[in-house]
Amino acid sequence: MPRRRRYRRWDAEEKRSICQQTRAPGVSVAQVARRHGLNANLIFKWLKDPRFAPADAVEEAPVFLPVEALGGAVPTAPMASAAHGAHGRVEIVLATEHRLIVEGPFDADALARLLSVLARP
After folding, report:
1. What's the pTM?
2. Distance (Å, rounded) from C-alpha 91 to C-alpha 30?
3. Can you spell out the DSSP letters for the chain?
4. pLDDT tens-digit profile of 60-117?
5. Quick check: 29 and 43 in contact, CB under 8 A?
6. CA–CA separation, 3 vs 12, rounded Å?
């Protein structure tokens, strides 16, 4: 009869310590996982939990960057409709040849308002 596999149990302090090790400069989650004989995905799961994530791992709120649209042309992009599913893709090519790509679910009305603001002189 095969032996049952025993799973290790990690207490909260051990999880916090392991998560803190991932924040050292030049250290990857994979390195910490190998050091402790863990799967890196388990550490990523712990890092999402506010009980174990280091204080510096708290994400900051997104910020808007200033953008200036040059020229008189109004940029246009195909919009996803509800009939085509909740996911879409918008690609905006800037005059500098840089591309802004938005993928996934998005509010088409909000994107249209953004484009109209970007097109203003």
Report:
1. 0.43
2. 33
3. -PPPPPPP---HHHHHHHHHHTTSTT--HHHHHHHHT--HHHHHHHHHSTTTS-GGGPPPPP-PPP----SSPPP------GGG-S-EEEEEE-TTS-EEEEEES--HHHHHHHHHHHT--
4. 566 666 666 666 555 555 554 544 455 667 777 766 666 777 777 777 777 777 767 6
5. yes
6. 28
